[in-house]
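On clarity, I found the account of how folds are encoded harder to follow than it need be. What matters is that the chain and its backbone geometry are given together, residue for residue. I therefore recommend that a typical entry be quoted early in the introduction. An entry of this sort, consisting of the sequence and the corresponding backbone structure tokens, reads as follows:
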Amino acid sequence: MSSTATHVMHTAMVKPQINCSRRTFMQSTVNFSTKCKATAWKRLASSSHISARPSFFQSLTTSNAKSSEKVVSRAMSVAVESNTLPGLPIDLRGKRAFIAGVADDNGYGWAIAKSLAAAGAEILVGTWVPALNIFESSLRRGKFYESCVLPDGSLMEITKVYPLDAVFDNPEDVPEDEVAESVKKDFGSIDILVHSLANGPEVSKPLLETSRNGYLAALSASSYSFISLLKHFAPIMNPGGASISLTYIASEKIIPGYGGGMSSAKSALESDTRVLAFEAGRKHKIRVNTISAGPLRSRAAKAIGFIDMMIDYSSANAPLQKELSAEEVGNAAAFLASPLASAITGAVVYVDNGLNAMGVGVDSPIFENLDIPKDN
């Protein structure tokens, strides 16, 4: 959720290779290495194993983000061991994912990229143009080093960062999405498309006070952008591919403070998910689902101003009394993108500790005399 970007962000462009590891700068050349500290990231580690890659070095020439020069950044975990796993592992080795809406390391877009990488997918990223320079600079300087560590101790790598802009006042103003053509030229095809874009310039205003331009801007950036993204990427997606977007419970329930047309945009996104599942499924053999994620204390969500209250409310009233982690949403996305979810399409998948199932807030004084179990 956010006033500038709900759950995520926006962007599209290209440049030379960037890895999450710490780097040494010499003039305009960057030194890369995949050596990293061993860290336990347990949830995906139990279902997928990717051995650490050997160290490698990559040079890159820095360039202005506004130019059309390509910015590379290698992203993917490669398996060195061939031993099979017991049970039903999430195995996305050999798959390529494009995640639209990654501008920092603490939102759902990043978490999804990391889970997909942990399962073996190659990662391409689309970043909101105004945030592009900061994002790439943070990658080069190793600012996201700790956040890049995968379950096996290796680092997530981002093969390429593309500038991507999804902020337009009206749907008819949205230009043909050149990023898909760039990806096609660079890689030929992708298997997984993730839409983690949302923007509501008037999100802090009640719906009754939202202007036409503010309402259309929210709809354009947060829901129409998914239609446009899928329209242009579907032709280069391999049959059996999967597309995933992010929605929020405000699409179907009243969330005071989540205004500016954002609730309408999320409702449209969920409706579009069902229609696109049919159209993309019949025409391209692609699955289309959306994840209704609970509140996350991300930088984007903090812009709304009441994210802490929503997290506290969820912890007090959801069936599972714990704070939702971005990793849990990322792992759900990895499942939906995998062959294990091959028959799931057109679905809204709730990853919110079960809050969506509640009809009342049990922390209300009205229920104080009921014997309601609480996590103390």
The two ends are 28 Å apart (CA to CA). The chain has nine helices and eleven strands. Confidence is low (pLDDT under 50) at residues 1-16, 21-81.
